[in-house]
Structures are given as structure tokens and as C-alpha cells.
Design brief:
The chain is mainly α and about 190 residues long. It contains 10 helices and no strands.
């Protein structure tokens, strides 16, 4: 009904991205940002669409798209300095992109520290990401338990530790207990 409504464009972009239609997602996200350039959710949606397009692009297009992805993340964080989702994408970028494309592991570590100052649960989960990149898998369980201790009512902390217990740790009874706790926290989520 409202083809120029930025909220509808943003939502449709997310739907297209979820279904793997990266080009349509990018087009819709660009239109949402054009309609409301100061909305950090729309900027982050555009960054996600650009990032997905970059992963599918030819090697010749990837550097330009990577630069644009990082720019959109920076714009998102300028509009909303506490946007944890944008910070998590920045960490991934800093660890996965080569230096000549703007990747910087020190910046990624600083971003994880910044998340910790905003939200301890998310901070510990960001530290888990760093542990994976550093190939320190022995630290993961400890960090996940710290996330749960920092946020005993956090659905995400329960679910992430439950998934770890189910997968790597093979602690099935604990995984079930944690999953049931997550359902108790928010029965509307499907994780």
C-alpha cells in the first residue's frame, strides 16, 4: 500500500536478505535509507545487504563493497553509538577483512571492550567471537558462563550456553535445563 514507506522498505529488505535475494535486498535497503538517512536501523540494514552482496560479488567488486559496508557501519554507529549489532558486525569485519580493505584486529578488540562497557552479556558474547578468531576454543565455555552470570535473566545468554552444551560440550541435561530456562524468560521466541 505504501511503496515509499521506509519502515516497509527496511522490513522487505530484511525478508529478501533472509531468502537470499541479495540484489533485491540491497535495492530496498538503499530506498529505505534514501527515505530516512538518519535512521540507524535502516543504515544497519543497508550495511547487512551490502555485506551479503559483497560475499557473492566478483573479486573485482568485493573491495568497493567492503569499503561501503564498513562506511555504513561507521554511519550507523555515528547515529547510534551504542548499537551493539553494528559493533558485532564491525568486529567480524575487522577480523575477516585484510588490512588493505580496512580490517584491523586491534580495532576489533577495542570494539569488543566497548560492547562490554555497554552490556556485559553482549560483551562476553563478543569475547567468545574473539576466542574463536584467536583459536582459543578452551576459553569459550568460561566466557559463556560469565555471560550467563552477568545476565541471569538474559534469554540470549541461556540459549547460547545451551547450544554450546548441546554441541561442543555434549552436556545434554544442562542444555535442556538452560533451554527450558530460556523458554521461561521468553516463551515467544523459537531458539
Amino acid at each position: 500500500e505504501h511503496p515509499k514507506d521506509p519502515e516497509a522498505l527496511w522490513m522487505m529488505s530484511f525478508v529478501k536478505l533472509t531468502w537470499g535475494d541479495h540484489k533485491a535486498a540491497l535495492d530496498l535497503a538503499e530506498k529505505a535509507v534514501a527515505a530516512d538517512p538518519k535512521n540507524p536501523r535502516y543504515r544497519l540494514g543497508l550495511a547487512q545487504a551490502v555485506g551479503e552482496e559483497a560475499q557473492q560479488a566478483s573479486i573485482l567488486r568485493q573491495p568497493g563493497l567492503a569499503h561501503r559496508f564498513k562506511k555504513e557501519l561507521e554511519t550507523t554507529l555515528a547515529l547510534d553509538p551504542n548499537n551493539i549489532a553494528a559493533m558485532k558486525f564491525a568486529i567480524l569485519y575487522d577480523f575477516e577483512a585484510p588490512g588493505f580493505m580496512g580490517g584491523d584486529k586491534q580495532e576489533g578488540r577495542a570494539m569488543a571492550d566497548r560492547i562490554m562497557r555497554i552490556d556485559a552479556v553482549e560483551g562476553y558474547l563478543a569475547q567468545v567471537t574473539l576466542a574463536h578468531f584467536d583459536k582459543q576454543e578452551n576459553r569459550v565455555e568460561e566466557l559463556l558462563r560469565k555471560a550467563l552470570a552477568a545476565g541471569p535473566t538474559s534469554y540470549q545468554a541461556h540459549l547460547t550456553l545451551a547450544n554450546f552444551c548441546l554441541g561442543q560440550a555434549k552436556k545434554y541435561a544442562e542444555a535442556e535445563t538452560l533451554a527450558r530456562s530460556a523458554i521461561g524468560i521468553d516463551a515467544t521466541r523459537t531458539g
